[in-house]
């Protein structure tokens, strides 16, 4: 924060979004759009921006390729917005260079793991109404989370009531595996489907055999009802 304050002292002569303030210091270019009542990400952010602050706005969604043209971006602050949806390719184009990404204090319940696992950035995901599930568990284990905020990733909703309100890390440390729960559910669904098909085949075979048996019995009865050859000969 102190660094951003210093950047404010030096004006940036190049183009800048009208709702933002752009500054430069020691070659580091920053676009400061904090608390500007923005409802979406500005589309005219300079390509050579290194720091981008979009915190304390009303942004609700991060669409695909939202920052793709910002190849030099290193720090991105999206905290304290109203973000509910993040597309799978939201951070495409900046994944390699981004060093920090702050998504804390939003309205994020779930997020495609593909959107975050490709990042090398340190992530802040605290204070969101998370639904604890397999995808969030995979993000926790594989992404680079900020250690100072990981305890604040809590389960707002979960498959079991006993997990609600608890830190996701605490739940996982207790031995819970949301991914194995999903796998068991998938296995049960596959078993039920296979059993249903097997039952249909059995019913078909039984009906087929019964139908043929009835036809055979009718044919035999018909043959018995015919006058015998021997009787005609006499």
TrEMBL record:
Give every LRRNT domain span.
15-51
Q: Which terms in the GO cellular component ontology are assigned?
A: plasma membrane
The family database entries (SUPFAM superfamilies) matched by this protein are listed as: L domain-like
Q: Membrane topology per the record?
A: Single-pass membrane protein
Q: InterPro entries annotated for this entry?
A: Leu-rich_rpt, Leu-rich_rpt_typical-subtyp, LRR_dom_sf, LRR_TM_domain-containing, LRRNT
Organism whose genome encodes this protein: Steatornis caripensis (Oilbird)
Report the locations given in the UniProt record: Membrane
Keyword Transmembrane set for record: yes
Q: Which top-rank group of organisms is this from?
A: Eukaryota
Keyword terms, alphabetized? Leucine-rich repeat, Membrane, Repeat, Signal, Transmembrane, Transmembrane helix
What protein family is recorded?
Answer: Belongs to the LRRC3 family.
Q: Which residues cross the membrane?
A: 188-209
The entry's protein name is Leucine-rich repeat-containing protein 3
